[in-house]
Amino acid sequence: MKTESEKSLALVDTNLLVYAYAENSPKRQRAAELLNDCFAGKIKLALSFQNLGEFCNVSLTRYLLSTKDAWERVEEFIGCGNFIKLSYGTTTFQKALEIVNSSKIDFWDAVLAATMKENAIDIIYTEDSDFGKVEGIKAVNPFQ
What phi-psi label fits residue 66: left (phi over 0), alpha (psi between -120 and 50 degrees) or beta? Predict the structure, then answer.
């Protein structure tokens, strides 16, 4: 049975990480508020190392963040104990393929979903409604 703090733990999708640091994003303020609540210790959130890798990729290619700035942001997330960092392994990929088959979602989204399931996390903050297709996962759009 989950404790009260585990019940409230949600994973943050990459799009929120990107919006929080994208100066020209109209969603920046709301995304930054959510992350800042975690940095300040008001809430705990989960992040997969996959999210951090995707954040670097999007920030470097789309938002032209310097590698130094991207690394500083990643270090902030890694160094903050209020962000629970999740890894994935070989069995995660097998579960992800099962999720792709049953839910018909993108493979990398399925890896995140499988990582969530392995860590008993059933909520994801995201704009991607496809996560709602995965049994046992609730997608919450913080911008609505």
Answer: beta
